[in-house]
């Protein structure tokens, strides 16, 4: 279940945001809010939108000019349910509400899978809010952890697959791998647990969109791409320093918190370089085709840190161009990945600084040895570009992001 907010009127016409179950986004002019809108009539922390199992709720946070739902001004700090097709007006902007995953079939499927997974979680500790995603081996739920007073993401090994003992061990390894990596730019795994013979991970719930969500409405601003790229490169550097290769760097696996800090997620097919035995089955470890390196496309088990640098390069290309360097529309894409150079980035994004375009193309080199020598080298290059191109945005700020995601309390928002 998700909500899509699309700007129908205002300076940012056509821009979209995705809100997933359990997430609360603050809308305003402040730089540290999840939905930042350039409109002088909007307060710094103007309103909040929260997706609950019952639907999307809109709350005015005591804004100067008010928040309007279908033309009716909302009472401050009073959550109001917005239905499919409704409009939300703030300042000179009007946002249309679309809801996905709310048809009867989707509801029945969510209820069925939640009945399978919810008994794993101690009821006195967790309240499951609903499913927020699923992958090849796991389902992810937003949950409230009562004892610690926080929202978390819980990833549960799927039971509708024929998962053997080695499959469960691979799932548990994801949690162990993440626990080895210490970085504010890697999604934190709080705990790894076994219940009734099934595994689940208790993870940080990032209160913000993925980079994939952000790029759905078109290429991102240069400054934002530089910051996301730097953060992900620093997360990769932390992983590489403890011998872990991610192998699936892509926009969908990059989560953005309200401060704009990017966090690398989903180490489900990660490779431990010092591991004596491989837990990767035949056919696994390929990653997502649009972002895989030539060496990963030919032999997924024989990869190293340079593979992640390629994945980061393909991700930056996508965020800048609005499309990945190679589009997997036919089986020929494997041949293109291994043989053809990526189309010139400047052809899709003429305003891209030439130094940034050159760095992206260098990361996309076919030969691993021709790519930047480390993820840290990429991070420092992106930070240097950000300082030079946007000194006003980095002066006096936290230049490498950092810190935990903001915990949003809409009842005390300014």
For the record, give the distance between the C-alpha atoms at the N and C termini, rounded to a whole number. 29 Å
Neighbour order of strands in the largest sheet: 2-1-11-10-7-8
Overall pLDDT confidence: 86
Provide the gyration radius in Å.
Answer: 21 Å
Main β-sheet, in a few words?
6 strands, antiparallel
The parts where pLDDT drops under 50 for at least 5 residues are 396-414
Q: How many helix segments?
A: 11
**How would you describe the shape?**
globular
The helicity comes to 25-40%
Helix/strand/pairing category = alpha+beta
Total E-strand runs? 20
Q: What portion of residues belong to β-strands?
A: 15-25%
Please, could you describe this protein's structure?
The protein is α+β, with helices and mostly antiparallel strands and 414 residues long. Helices cover 28% and strands 24% of the residues. The strands form five sheets. A six-stranded antiparallel sheet has the order 2-1-11-10-7-8, with no helix packed on it. Strands 4-3-5-6-9 form a five-stranded mixed sheet, with no helix packed on it. Helix 4 (222-241) packs antiparallel against helix 6. The protein is globular, with a radius of gyration of 21 Å. The relative contact order is 0.11. Residues 396-414 have low confidence and may be disordered.
């Amino acid at each position: 279940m998700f909500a899509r907010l699309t700007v129908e009127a205002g300076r940012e016409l056509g821009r979209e945001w995705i809100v997933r179950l359990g997430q609360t986004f603050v809308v305003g002019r402040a730089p540290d809010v999840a939905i930042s809108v350039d409109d002088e009539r909007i307060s710094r922390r103007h309103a909040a939108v929260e997706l609950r199992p019952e639907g999307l709720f809109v709350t005015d946070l005591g804004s100067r000019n008010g928040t309007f739902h279908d033309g009716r001004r909302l009472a401050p700090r009073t959550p109001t349910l917005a239905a499919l097709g409704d409009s939300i007006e703030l300042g000179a902007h009007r946002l249309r509400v679309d809801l996905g995953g709310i048809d009867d079939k989707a509801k029945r499927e969510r209820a069925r899978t939640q009945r399978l997974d919810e008994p794993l979680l101690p009821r006195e500790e967790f309240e499951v809010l609903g499913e927020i995603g699923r992958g090849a081996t796991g389902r992810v739920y937003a949950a409230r952890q009562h004892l610690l007073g926080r929202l978390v993401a819980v990833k549960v090994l799927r039971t509708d697959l024929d998962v053997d003992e080695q499959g469960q061990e691979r799932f548990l390894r994801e949690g162990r791998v993440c626990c080895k990596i210490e970085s504010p730019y890697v999604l934190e795994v709080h705990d790894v647990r076994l219940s009734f013979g099934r595994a689940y991970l208790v993870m940080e719930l990032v209160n913000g969109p993925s980079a994939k969500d952000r790029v759905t409405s078109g290429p991102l601003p240069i400054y934002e791409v530089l910051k996301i790229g730097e953060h992900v490169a620093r997360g990769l550097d932390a992983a590489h320093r403890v011998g872990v290769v991610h192998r699936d760097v892509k926009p969908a696996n990059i989560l953005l918190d309200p401060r704009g800090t990017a966090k690398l997620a989903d180490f489900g097919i990660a490779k431990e370089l010092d591991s004596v035995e491989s837990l990767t089955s035949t056919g696994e470890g390929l990653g997502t085709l649009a972002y895989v390196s030539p060496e990963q496309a030919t032999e997924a088990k024989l990869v190293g840190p340079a593979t992640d640098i390629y994945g980061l390069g393909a991700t930056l290309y996508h965020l800048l161009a609005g499309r990945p360097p190679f589009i997997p529309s036919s089986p020929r894409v494997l041949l293109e990945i291994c043989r053809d150079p990526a189309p010139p980035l400047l052809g899709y994004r003429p305003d891209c600084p030439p130094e940034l375009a050159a760095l992206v193309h260098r990361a996309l080199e076919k030969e691993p040895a021709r790519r930047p020598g480390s993820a840290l080298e990429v991070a420092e290059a992106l930070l240097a570009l950000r300082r030079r191109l946007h000194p006003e945005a980095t002066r006096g700020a936290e230049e490498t992001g950092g810190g935990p995601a903001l915990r949003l309390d809409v009842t005390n928002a300014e």
